[in-house]
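Priority: low. Protein: Pantothenate synthetase. Input follows.
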Amino acid sequence: MQVIADIAPLREQILQWRREGQRIAFVPTMGHLHDGHMTLVRKAREAADVVVVSIFVNPMQFEKADDLASYPRTMDDDLAKLNAEGVEIVFTPTVEVMYPNGMEQHSCVDVPGLSSILEGSSRPGHFKGVATVVSKLFNMVQPDVACFGEKDFQQLAVINKLVADLCLPIEILPVATVREMDGLAMSSRNTRLTVDERQRAPVLSKTLRWISSQMRGGRTDYSELVLDGNDQLRAAGLEPDDIFIRDAYTLQPITEQTTKAVVLAAAFLGQVRLIDNLTVDITPPAAASSEEEE
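Result:
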C-alpha cells in the first residue's frame, strides 16, 4: 500500500494505471475509519481493479472552528485498517496541499437547489465545502467509480447532481448505511458520545422507523409526524435539530407523484450532532384509488 501526500506522485501512479487499462475506484473519507468506511472500501474493490482512499479533514465544510478542531484524527489506525483491506493508495494531503493559497480566495463549487435546503439551511456553506473538495479530489484521482454512503443522504444527492452537471465520467456507487446491532448508524462522531449518551443514541433510528411505519400505514399528516418524532427524541434526552419528510429523488416536499420518500433527521446528544435517514415506499393517491376499485 502506498501512502501519498502530494498531488504529483498520485497523478503519476494514476497515469500508469490508466496506461495499463486498470479500472480505478475511489473512496473519499475524513478518517477515523469504522466498519461503515470498510464497507465502502469493499464495495469499491468489487467495482474496480485498484482502490484509492483519501483521508482529509476538510476545513471548508466546517462552520465552527471548535468542531473542526475536535474531529477525531487516528491516522495510524486508519492506515492499518486500509492496509488490511489491500488498498493500493491512501492519499493523505495536508490543508496546504489542498488549499495552497488559503480558502478565502479559493474557487468554489456550488450545487444550486440542493446545497442550501434541509441540512444546508442549518449549516450554511457546508455543502459548498463538500462539493469543492470532492471536485478537487475527483480531478486528482480521476476515478472510474466513487463510493459514498447513503447515511449522508443529502450529500449523496449533491454529489450525484455535481457529477451530472459537470459531465464527469464517474459512476457514483451508493452504499447502504451500516448500523450497530442496536440500530445506530455508524459514524466517526459516535466515539465522542459518553456511555450514557451511547445508550440513548439509538432512539434516533428508532424514531425514524416509527415515522416510516406510520407513513406505510397511510399517515400523510407529515407536519404532525415531525412534531411527534421530535417529542420522542426529547423524551429520550436528545435535542432535535431537524426532521424532514421529502421526496427521495428530488428532496422537495412530497407530491401526489411521489413514490419514494425519505425521512431525514438530525439531533444533538450532548456535544454530538447525530444524523440518520430512512427511505419509505409510498403509494400515490391515484394508484391507491385504482387498487381499491379492483
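The radius of gyration is 20 Å. The first helix runs from residue 7 to 19.
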